[in-house]
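From the shared-data thread, chain only:
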Amino acid sequence: MVPWLGPDDPFPPVERALGATSGAPGLLAASADLLPSRLIDAYRRGIFPWYSDGQPVLWWSPDPRMILATGEFKVSPSLKKTLKRVLREDRWEVRVDCEFAAVMRACAQAPRRGQRGTWITAEIIDAYSSLHRVGDAHSIETWLDGERVGGLYGVSFGKMFFGESMFADVTDASKIALAALVGHLRRHEVELIDCQQNTAHLASLGGREIARKAFITHVKSAVAASPIPWRFDKTVLADLVAPSLTSAP
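Structure, as tokens:
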């Protein structure tokens, strides 16, 4: 039985989430509210919301957990070529927190293979925008000729980044934003990006699954660290095209 959380009820231990043989592996709890305070508490515990319109707020902590270790980000030869062009040409920009809510709306409209509709509802946008206003959620955006053409958003506490969603209106625009994020996080010794669910796209970029226990242990330590700055531009991409850094074979 998945517990229903009242306004003042704490999250149950993540070990109580439904198991692999259930119809909803990783489902931990449900609630009627998506208050910013609840959202902050969830992320600090390695829990995230994921639900559709018409459903209660569903809270998840899957086992295993998909992550991208920043030191394992794969830069393919074609992506490296793209990043070099972005660095070289003034028409390309990487902006941070310029149009956060617009990035969320673009992510909501992005087509997803095998999915109908979106989990990025108006309620989700309002809640994460509240976190953005206090500096706990961020957007990394790819701009071309003065237009936003791709990006991603997520939540950050201490030395932990929880990725949420990305979109691209031109080829590789979301990968450029992700590469810039990885470059920035590496500079500040952030080891992991939470990717939540396993996808082939994330695996192609170096994502992999780890046991929930290991993930939660890392999160507890990382979120307790001092917060990192959130001002950077496309120059962080230079770190990823240097010959000495890991790239895909």
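DSSP finds eight helices and eleven strands in the chain.
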